[in-house]
Structures are given as structure tokens and as C-alpha cells.
């Protein structure tokens, strides 16, 4: 992924967007600090559909033998 200064990105915004659509996102920097990323809408949609870790765990198919009796025992109070 290439880095481009904000001033340059403003001057050639159409080219930056064309690159993003072709699968080449760009990091926009301002005063040497990374501030934003330009990526295609399709890539943004794909990334925004990633389920949370909790949802992945809840949707995992578990069989009765997947959790041992030791793991299923209630937790002890540690006094904290």
C-alpha cells in the first residue's frame, strides 16, 4: 500500500480513487502522520461485514465432547 501526502492526494484525487478501485489502496498522510486510507467501496463493504469474535464463537458448532468435564466445571471465587 502506498503512502501519499494529502496535498498530492488532493491534486490527483481521481487517480487515487482509480487505483483504489483497481485494488491498490493508499494511505493519506498529513505532516508525516498517517491520517486516512482510501480504498474501494467494494473493499470497504467486505471489511465491514466481518463478524465480531463473539459472534464467531456463538456460531461455532459444538458437540457434547468438545468441552471436557474439567472445562465445564464452575469457576471458583478467586477472592478478587
Tags for this model:
Antitoxin_Phd/YefM; 80 residues; YefM-like_sf; YefM-like fold; 3-stranded mixed sheet; Antitoxin; 3 strands
What does this 3D model show about the protein?
By secondary structure, the chain is α+β, with helices and mostly antiparallel strands. It has a domain at 1-51: YefM-like fold (3-Layer(aba) Sandwich), CATH 3.40.1620.10. 42% of the residues lie in helices and 19% in strands. A 3-stranded mixed beta sheet has the order 1-2-3. The protein is elongated. The model has no long low-confidence stretch (mean pLDDT 86).
Number of helical segments?
5
Structural class: alpha+beta
Give the averaged pLDDT, no decimals.
86
The assembly state of the depicted protein chains is: single chain
Poorly predicted regions are none
What's the order of the H and E elements?
EHHEEHHH
CATH homology-level superfamily of the domain at 1-51: YefM-like domain
What is the CATH third-level topology name of the domain at 1-51?
Answer: YefM-like fold
CATH class of the domain at 1-51: Alpha Beta
Helix content: 40-55%
* Apparent shape: elongated
Radius of gyration from the alpha-carbon trace, in angstroms: 23 Å
Within the largest sheet, what's the order of strands? 1-2-3
Counted beta strands: 3
Tell me the span between the first and last alpha carbons: 46 Å
The second-level CATH architecture of the domain at 1-51 is: 3-Layer(aba) Sandwich
Sheet with the most strands? 3 strands, mixed
Strand content: 15-25%
Family: Belongs to the phD/YefM antitoxin family.
InterPro entries: Antitoxin_Phd/YefM (IPR006442), YefM-like_sf (IPR036165)
Organism: Azospirillum griseum
Function: Antitoxin component of a type II toxin-antitoxin (TA) system.
